TrEMBL record:
The gene is lpxD_4. GO terms for biological process: lipid A biosynthetic process. Keywords: Acyltransferase, Lipid A biosynthesis, Lipid biosynthesis, Lipid metabolism, Repeat, Transferase. This is UDP-3-O-acylglucosamine N-acyltransferase. Residues 22-89 form the UDP-3-O-[3-hydroxymyristoyl] glucosamine N-acyltransferase non-repeat region domain. It comes from Flavobacterium sangjuense. It catalyses: a UDP-3-O-[(3R)-3-hydroxyacyl]-alpha-D-glucosamine + a (3R)-hydroxyacyl-[ACP] = a UDP-2-N,3-O-bis[(3R)-3-hydroxyacyl]-alpha-D-glucosamine + holo-[ACP] + H(+). The active site is at H241. InterPro entries: Hexapep, LpxD, Trimer_LpxA-like_sf, UDP_GlcNAc_AcTrfase_non-rep. GO terms for cellular component: membrane. The keyword Lipid biosynthesis applies. GO terms for molecular function: N-acyltransferase activity; UDP-3-O-[(3R)-3-hydroxyacyl]-glucosamine N-acyltransferase activity.
Amino acid sequence: MKFTAAQIAGILEGEVVGNPEAEVFKLAKIEEGTEGSLTFLANPKYVNFIYTTAATITIVNNDFVPENELTTTLIKVEDAYQSFSKLLEYYNQVKLMKSGIEQPSVISENVTYGEHLYLGSFSYVGKNVTIGNNVKIYPNCFIGDNVTIGDNCIFFAGVKIYSETVIGSNCNFHSGCVVGSDGFGFAPTEDGTFSKIPQIGNVIIEDDVEVGANTTIDRATLGTTLIRKGVKLDNHIQVAHNVEIGENTVIAAQTGIAGSTKIGSNCMIGGQVGIAGHITIGNNVRVQAQSGVGKNVPDGEVLQGSPSFGYSDYSKSYVHFRNLPKIVADLEELKKNNNTN
Protein backbone atom coordinates (compact mmCIF):
# COMPACT_ATOMS: atom_id res chain seq x y z
CA MET A 1 0.00 0.00 0.00
CA LYS A 2 1.25 3.45 -0.92
CA PHE A 3 0.25 6.74 0.72
CA THR A 4 1.09 10.30 -0.28
CA ALA A 5 2.12 13.03 2.12
CA ALA A 6 -1.20 14.77 1.43
CA GLN A 7 -3.18 11.62 2.34
CA ILE A 8 -1.22 11.12 5.55
CA ALA A 9 -1.62 14.77 6.52
CA GLY A 10 -5.36 14.37 6.00
CA ILE A 11 -5.50 11.40 8.36
CA LEU A 12 -3.41 13.20 11.00
CA GLU A 13 -4.87 16.69 10.47
CA GLY A 14 -1.35 17.92 9.81
CA GLU A 15 0.40 20.37 7.48
CA VAL A 16 2.69 19.29 4.62
CA VAL A 17 5.99 21.15 4.27
CA GLY A 18 7.56 19.95 1.04
CA ASN A 19 6.16 17.71 -1.70
CA PRO A 20 2.51 16.76 -1.03
CA GLU A 21 2.75 14.02 -3.69
CA ALA A 22 5.71 12.29 -2.04
CA GLU A 23 4.83 8.60 -1.64
CA VAL A 24 5.71 6.10 1.08
CA PHE A 25 5.02 2.37 1.40
CA LYS A 26 6.90 1.38 4.57
CA LEU A 27 7.79 2.61 8.07
CA ALA A 28 11.26 3.12 9.56
CA LYS A 29 13.22 4.58 12.44
CA ILE A 30 14.55 8.03 11.59
CA GLU A 31 18.19 6.86 11.69
CA GLU A 32 17.36 3.91 9.41
CA GLY A 33 15.07 5.70 6.96
CA THR A 34 15.35 4.87 3.25
CA GLU A 35 13.61 6.11 0.14
CA GLY A 36 9.91 5.30 0.27
CA SER A 37 9.78 5.15 4.06
CA LEU A 38 7.84 7.20 6.62
CA THR A 39 9.38 8.12 9.97
CA PHE A 40 8.88 10.59 12.81
CA LEU A 41 10.89 12.88 15.09
CA ALA A 42 9.63 13.27 18.67
CA ASN A 43 12.72 12.96 20.87
CA PRO A 44 15.09 15.99 20.65
CA LYS A 45 18.16 13.76 21.01
CA TYR A 46 17.43 12.36 17.53
CA VAL A 47 17.13 15.76 15.85
CA ASN A 48 20.48 15.43 14.01
CA PHE A 49 19.14 12.44 12.10
CA ILE A 50 16.51 14.53 10.34
CA TYR A 51 19.27 16.19 8.31
CA THR A 52 20.75 12.86 7.17
CA THR A 53 17.74 10.56 6.97
CA ALA A 54 16.82 9.16 3.59
CA ALA A 55 13.18 8.76 4.65
CA THR A 56 10.79 10.28 2.13
CA ILE A 57 8.40 11.72 4.76
CA THR A 58 9.01 12.68 8.40
CA ILE A 59 6.32 13.56 10.95
CA VAL A 60 7.44 16.39 13.28
CA ASN A 61 5.95 18.65 15.96
CA ASN A 62 4.46 21.98 14.90
CA ASP A 63 7.23 23.91 16.66
CA PHE A 64 10.04 22.19 14.75
CA VAL A 65 12.17 24.69 12.80
CA PRO A 66 14.97 23.17 10.68
CA GLU A 67 18.43 24.67 11.09
CA ASN A 68 19.85 23.04 7.95
CA GLU A 69 18.57 21.97 4.55
CA LEU A 70 16.24 18.95 4.49
CA THR A 71 15.65 16.32 1.81
CA THR A 72 12.66 14.77 3.57
CA THR A 73 9.11 16.10 3.25
CA LEU A 74 7.70 17.15 6.63
CA ILE A 75 4.23 16.68 8.06
CA LYS A 76 3.75 19.02 11.01
CA VAL A 77 1.36 17.93 13.75
CA GLU A 78 0.53 18.79 17.36
CA ASP A 79 2.26 15.69 18.78
CA ALA A 80 4.52 13.66 16.48
CA TYR A 81 4.67 10.60 18.73
CA GLN A 82 0.91 10.33 19.18
CA SER A 83 0.32 10.99 15.50
CA PHE A 84 2.73 8.24 14.48
CA SER A 85 0.97 5.86 16.88
CA LYS A 86 -2.38 6.84 15.35
CA LEU A 87 -0.96 6.15 11.92
CA LEU A 88 0.29 2.72 12.99
CA GLU A 89 -3.19 1.89 14.24
CA TYR A 90 -4.75 3.09 10.99
CA TYR A 91 -2.22 1.11 8.94
CA ASN A 92 -2.94 -2.01 10.95
CA GLN A 93 -6.68 -1.62 10.44
CA VAL A 94 -6.21 -1.26 6.69
CA LYS A 95 -3.88 -4.26 6.57
CA LEU A 96 -6.39 -6.42 8.44
CA MET A 97 -9.39 -5.19 6.45
CA LYS A 98 -10.46 -8.51 4.98
CA SER A 99 -13.91 -9.97 4.41
CA GLY A 100 -15.47 -12.93 2.71
CA ILE A 101 -15.41 -16.68 3.16
CA GLU A 102 -12.47 -18.45 1.56
CA GLN A 103 -12.53 -22.03 0.35
CA PRO A 104 -11.96 -24.67 1.49
CA SER A 105 -13.54 -23.89 4.87
CA VAL A 106 -16.42 -25.35 6.85
CA ILE A 107 -19.43 -23.61 8.41
CA SER A 108 -21.59 -26.13 10.25
CA GLU A 109 -25.32 -26.16 10.99
CA ASN A 110 -27.14 -23.32 12.77
CA VAL A 111 -24.24 -20.86 12.57
CA THR A 112 -25.15 -17.17 12.60
CA TYR A 113 -22.71 -14.38 11.79
CA GLY A 114 -22.83 -10.63 11.33
CA GLU A 115 -21.57 -8.27 8.66
CA HIS A 116 -18.07 -8.28 7.15
CA LEU A 117 -17.04 -11.73 8.37
CA TYR A 118 -13.66 -12.93 7.16
CA LEU A 119 -13.18 -16.71 7.34
CA GLY A 120 -9.81 -17.88 6.06
CA SER A 121 -9.23 -21.09 4.16
CA PHE A 122 -8.97 -24.40 6.03
CA SER A 123 -10.88 -22.99 8.99
CA TYR A 124 -13.72 -24.82 10.73
CA VAL A 125 -16.76 -23.35 12.51
CA GLY A 126 -18.78 -25.83 14.58
CA LYS A 127 -22.50 -26.17 15.17
CA ASN A 128 -24.65 -23.50 16.84
CA VAL A 129 -21.89 -20.87 16.78
CA THR A 130 -22.82 -17.19 17.00
CA ILE A 131 -20.38 -14.62 15.53
CA GLY A 132 -20.77 -10.83 15.68
CA ASN A 133 -19.91 -8.12 13.17
CA ASN A 134 -16.46 -7.42 11.70
CA VAL A 135 -14.91 -10.66 12.96
CA LYS A 136 -11.72 -11.87 11.26
CA ILE A 137 -10.90 -15.59 11.45
CA TYR A 138 -7.62 -16.31 9.68
CA PRO A 139 -6.69 -19.63 8.00
CA ASN A 140 -6.38 -22.89 9.94
CA CYS A 141 -8.54 -21.78 12.87
CA PHE A 142 -10.94 -24.04 14.77
CA ILE A 143 -14.12 -22.72 16.40
CA GLY A 144 -15.92 -25.45 18.36
CA ASP A 145 -19.63 -26.08 18.85
CA ASN A 146 -21.80 -23.61 20.79
CA VAL A 147 -19.17 -20.85 20.85
CA THR A 148 -20.30 -17.22 21.09
CA ILE A 149 -18.10 -14.43 19.68
CA GLY A 150 -18.80 -10.70 19.95
CA ASP A 151 -18.03 -7.90 17.48
CA ASN A 152 -14.63 -6.82 16.12
CA CYS A 153 -12.65 -9.88 17.23
CA ILE A 154 -9.56 -11.18 15.42
CA PHE A 155 -8.39 -14.80 15.43
CA PHE A 156 -4.99 -15.08 13.80
CA ALA A 157 -3.87 -18.21 11.98
CA GLY A 158 -3.98 -21.46 13.92
CA VAL A 159 -6.13 -20.36 16.88
CA LYS A 160 -8.21 -23.09 18.53
CA ILE A 161 -11.39 -22.19 20.44
CA TYR A 162 -12.99 -25.23 22.09
CA SER A 163 -16.73 -25.73 22.51
CA GLU A 164 -18.93 -23.69 24.85
CA THR A 165 -16.47 -20.76 25.03
CA VAL A 166 -17.99 -17.27 25.31
CA ILE A 167 -15.97 -14.35 23.94
CA GLY A 168 -16.87 -10.66 24.18
CA SER A 169 -16.15 -7.86 21.72
CA ASN A 170 -12.86 -6.30 20.59
CA CYS A 171 -10.71 -9.30 21.51
CA ASN A 172 -7.54 -10.44 19.74
CA PHE A 173 -6.18 -14.00 19.74
CA HIS A 174 -2.71 -14.56 18.34
CA SER A 175 -1.47 -17.58 16.43
CA GLY A 176 -1.34 -20.90 18.22
CA CYS A 177 -3.30 -19.92 21.32
CA VAL A 178 -5.80 -22.45 22.67
CA VAL A 179 -8.91 -21.50 24.64
CA GLY A 180 -11.07 -24.08 26.38
CA SER A 181 -8.75 -27.09 26.44
CA ASP A 182 -9.23 -29.56 29.31
CA GLY A 183 -8.04 -28.58 32.75
CA PHE A 184 -5.31 -30.75 34.30
CA GLY A 185 -7.54 -32.95 36.44
CA PHE A 186 -6.55 -36.52 37.36
CA ALA A 187 -7.33 -38.68 40.39
CA PRO A 188 -5.01 -41.43 41.67
CA THR A 189 -6.37 -44.98 41.56
CA GLU A 190 -5.66 -48.04 43.68
CA ASP A 191 -3.38 -49.56 41.04
CA GLY A 192 -1.12 -46.52 41.02
CA THR A 193 -2.39 -45.00 37.77
CA PHE A 194 -4.35 -41.77 37.31
CA SER A 195 -7.95 -41.50 36.17
CA LYS A 196 -9.01 -38.44 34.19
CA ILE A 197 -11.63 -36.19 35.80
CA PRO A 198 -14.05 -34.92 33.13
CA GLN A 199 -13.73 -31.19 32.52
CA ILE A 200 -17.27 -30.03 31.72
CA GLY A 201 -17.08 -26.28 32.45
CA ASN A 202 -16.23 -23.53 29.99
CA VAL A 203 -14.22 -20.34 29.46
CA ILE A 204 -15.70 -16.84 29.43
CA ILE A 205 -13.59 -13.99 28.05
CA GLU A 206 -15.00 -10.47 28.41
CA ASP A 207 -14.47 -7.44 26.13
CA ASP A 208 -11.12 -5.90 25.10
CA VAL A 209 -8.97 -8.91 25.97
CA GLU A 210 -5.76 -9.82 24.11
CA VAL A 211 -4.32 -13.35 24.23
CA GLY A 212 -0.76 -13.89 23.02
CA ALA A 213 0.68 -16.58 20.75
CA ASN A 214 0.72 -20.13 22.16
CA THR A 215 -1.02 -19.12 25.37
CA THR A 216 -3.46 -21.69 26.76
CA ILE A 217 -6.60 -21.05 28.82
CA ASP A 218 -8.16 -24.24 30.23
CA ARG A 219 -11.87 -24.81 30.64
CA ALA A 220 -13.22 -25.20 34.16
CA THR A 221 -13.78 -28.58 35.73
CA LEU A 222 -17.21 -27.26 36.76
CA GLY A 223 -18.34 -23.68 36.30
CA THR A 224 -16.17 -21.15 34.44
CA THR A 225 -12.60 -20.04 33.86
CA LEU A 226 -13.09 -16.27 33.72
CA ILE A 227 -10.95 -13.61 32.01
CA ARG A 228 -12.33 -10.18 32.84
CA LYS A 229 -12.54 -7.07 30.65
CA GLY A 230 -9.30 -5.48 29.46
CA VAL A 231 -6.94 -8.32 30.46
CA LYS A 232 -3.75 -8.60 28.37
CA LEU A 233 -1.95 -11.94 28.26
CA ASP A 234 1.49 -12.26 26.68
CA ASN A 235 2.80 -15.29 24.75
CA HIS A 236 3.32 -18.75 26.29
CA ILE A 237 1.14 -18.30 29.39
CA GLN A 238 -0.72 -21.16 31.07
CA VAL A 239 -4.06 -20.32 32.71
CA ALA A 240 -5.42 -23.41 34.47
CA HIS A 241 -9.02 -24.52 35.11
CA ASN A 242 -11.34 -22.31 37.17
CA VAL A 243 -8.86 -19.41 37.34
CA GLU A 244 -10.29 -15.89 37.45
CA ILE A 245 -8.27 -12.88 36.26
CA GLY A 246 -9.61 -9.42 37.14
CA GLU A 247 -10.12 -6.39 34.91
CA ASN A 248 -7.13 -4.69 33.24
CA THR A 249 -4.58 -7.10 34.66
CA VAL A 250 -1.51 -7.66 32.45
CA ILE A 251 0.65 -10.80 32.57
CA ALA A 252 4.00 -11.28 30.83
CA ALA A 253 5.27 -14.36 29.00
CA GLN A 254 5.86 -17.84 30.42
CA THR A 255 3.81 -17.27 33.56
CA GLY A 256 1.87 -20.26 34.89
CA ILE A 257 -1.28 -19.94 37.00
CA ALA A 258 -2.50 -23.10 38.74
CA GLY A 259 -6.14 -24.07 39.12
CA SER A 260 -8.84 -22.15 41.02
CA THR A 261 -6.62 -19.13 41.77
CA LYS A 262 -8.24 -15.70 41.68
CA ILE A 263 -6.23 -12.66 40.57
CA GLY A 264 -7.59 -9.17 41.17
CA SER A 265 -7.92 -6.11 38.95
CA ASN A 266 -5.13 -3.84 37.68
CA CYS A 267 -2.36 -6.29 38.59
CA MET A 268 0.98 -6.44 36.76
CA ILE A 269 2.68 -9.84 36.71
CA GLY A 270 6.15 -10.25 35.22
CA GLY A 271 7.52 -13.03 33.05
CA GLN A 272 8.15 -16.59 34.27
CA VAL A 273 6.11 -16.11 37.43
CA GLY A 274 4.70 -19.28 39.01
CA ILE A 275 1.41 -18.94 40.89
CA ALA A 276 0.12 -21.79 43.05
CA GLY A 277 -3.48 -23.00 42.96
CA HIS A 278 -6.42 -22.16 45.22
CA ILE A 279 -5.03 -18.78 46.37
CA THR A 280 -6.30 -15.21 46.05
CA ILE A 281 -4.21 -12.30 44.80
CA GLY A 282 -5.67 -8.86 45.53
CA ASN A 283 -6.08 -5.78 43.36
CA ASN A 284 -3.18 -3.57 42.18
CA VAL A 285 -0.58 -6.23 43.00
CA ARG A 286 2.85 -6.19 41.30
CA VAL A 287 4.82 -9.42 40.96
CA GLN A 288 8.40 -9.19 39.69
CA ALA A 289 9.69 -11.64 37.06
CA GLN A 290 10.60 -15.20 38.06
CA SER A 291 8.82 -14.96 41.39
CA GLY A 292 6.93 -17.84 42.95
CA VAL A 293 3.63 -16.96 44.64
CA GLY A 294 2.37 -19.65 47.00
CA LYS A 295 -0.03 -17.91 49.38
CA ASN A 296 -2.74 -15.23 49.43
CA VAL A 297 -1.61 -11.70 48.58
CA PRO A 298 -3.41 -8.57 49.88
CA ASP A 299 -4.18 -5.52 47.73
CA GLY A 300 -1.31 -3.32 46.60
CA GLU A 301 1.58 -5.66 47.46
CA VAL A 302 4.81 -5.69 45.41
CA LEU A 303 6.46 -9.12 45.46
CA GLN A 304 9.72 -10.70 44.40
CA GLY A 305 11.58 -13.95 45.00
CA SER A 306 10.77 -17.63 45.08
CA PRO A 307 8.95 -18.11 47.31
CA SER A 308 8.04 -14.47 46.92
CA PHE A 309 7.92 -11.93 49.73
CA GLY A 310 7.83 -8.14 50.04
CA TYR A 311 9.90 -6.41 47.35
CA SER A 312 11.60 -4.02 49.81
CA ASP A 313 12.55 -6.89 52.15
CA TYR A 314 13.72 -8.93 49.17
CA SER A 315 16.00 -6.13 47.93
CA LYS A 316 17.58 -5.67 51.37
CA SER A 317 18.02 -9.41 51.84
CA TYR A 318 19.55 -9.81 48.39
CA VAL A 319 22.30 -7.30 49.25
CA HIS A 320 23.21 -9.44 52.27
CA PHE A 321 22.99 -12.61 50.21
CA ARG A 322 25.52 -11.30 47.70
CA ASN A 323 27.85 -10.44 50.58
CA LEU A 324 27.31 -13.80 52.28
CA PRO A 325 30.84 -15.19 51.67
CA LYS A 326 32.40 -12.05 53.21
CA ILE A 327 29.95 -12.14 56.13
CA VAL A 328 30.83 -15.79 56.83
CA ALA A 329 34.54 -15.00 56.62
CA ASP A 330 34.10 -12.12 59.08
CA LEU A 331 32.20 -14.39 61.47
CA GLU A 332 34.92 -17.02 61.27
CA GLU A 333 37.53 -14.35 62.01
CA LEU A 334 35.53 -13.16 65.03
CA LYS A 335 35.24 -16.75 66.34
CA LYS A 336 38.96 -17.24 65.87
CA ASN A 337 39.78 -14.03 67.74
CA ASN A 338 37.40 -14.97 70.57
CA ASN A 339 39.02 -18.41 70.88
CA THR A 340 42.53 -16.97 71.04
CA ASN A 341 41.48 -14.47 73.69
